[in-house]
Predict the structure.
Amino acid sequence: MVSEKMQITEISDAEKRELIMKVYPRLKKRTKLLRLLRVGNALFIALFITACATTQLEQSAVVEKKPSQIGMQIRKGLVKSDVPEDFEKEMPSSDITLASIISFTKKPTVKDIADDVTDLDYENGLLVLLKGRTIETNRIDCPSILLPDDKYRSIQLENGLAVVAGSTKAVLADIAQCGTLYETNSAGKGFSLSKDYFLEITGNTFSIYDSRRTRELHKGDFLGSVYIGMLSGDKAMFVNDNGKIALMSARTGKYIAIYGGSVQVRQAYFENDSIYVYDEENDLRRLTADYKAGRLIDDGNTQAIDGCFFFKRSGKLYCDGYIYGLDIAYDLPVDADKGLIRDGLIFVVKDGVVSFVDTTLAYKKSVKLAPAGNRLCLKDGLAYFTDFNGSFKYISASGDEETADEMPDECDHSFDFEQGALRTPDGKEIYRFADIVNSSEKAYMLKRVIDDEVYYYFEKKPLSD
């Protein structure tokens, strides 16, 4: 059933153009005519699509979009990492840079790609955004589809079709044809799509149609009011208000697996032969179908917390800043009201803003002014310093680096590293703090690595006589 329910970095126009031109693998080569249509006006495009559409298709007005609003294709690994080695190849000359610390820290990437979004879905490179009464897409030949007037709340995408549910209306749209196929009353109903089937639920009855809703294939009830109904492939999953869960064959209309117990279900997600259930006891469990026995069997569970919800396209919950599964929990760098996970991609919606999240850690460059004053504080034969990551450390006379609880209140003597090293008065190196990786007439560039973090700072050369 379609459900009712750090810092964001703006994606630049240049990045958006790169996404359109380079990262749309499913966008086939167009004919000369279609290439002409791309640069033609919106009216010509609308007339062409109307002429090619079937008589069943209600053509939507194509809303002309700015280049920054269309053709958005986000893929995992797309986000470019800042490369420390590239930075150190060219010695800066700016006095501001030479007085700074340049850090490269591995972080996840969050990119703001849209706002004013109610819901979204993604499938095989196609991204659809529900914004008011408009479906916006990342297809260049169908940037948007205008829906009948209503307050829409959810969208589900399958095989190029989209079912959109609102407060009074539900609409089936065809993204390939860039228009709507069917409209019905949504009051008291739930809807779900798969590649070949369309499910419509009303109270304790349901109907299964072909995917374009031209033929009713099966109709029936489910031992009480249907609380959740969802399609996956050629199967339908039902949960009734008494906590009974069952699978039905959409081809035959017969039940093929039933759960023996009763679960007070908050939310459920169904994919392939597994049902993921988030229940009233905050338990996340997986039920797996044994078709020979005709049963749904418990196949793993874990304790969640109150207030979780499923991300679309996955059996994973979002819980208090974490993506939470049966065997994994990891921090999400941005808060979420809803979201989806598909093909290794994560999209998050918060207050209407859609963010693409790449959890693969990548180097991000940042700059801050270097602190004034000497770096080292000699106290009781130990040289204390505050490292670039904020930790307190000291160096012993033997050159060993250790972690300190705090910095001394007073120093017997203060001094700095010279060319990245601590040396004895006769010039013998005791400890190497950083390596010289580049230089100019004015300064040395030094590099220090702390775990996965890379830091560059600059040391002025002494004035020549």
User: Anything to note?
Assistant: The chain has two domains: 113-357, 367-460. Residues 1-10, 16-56, 59-73 have pLDDT under 50 and may be disordered. The first strand starts at residue 9 and ends at 10.
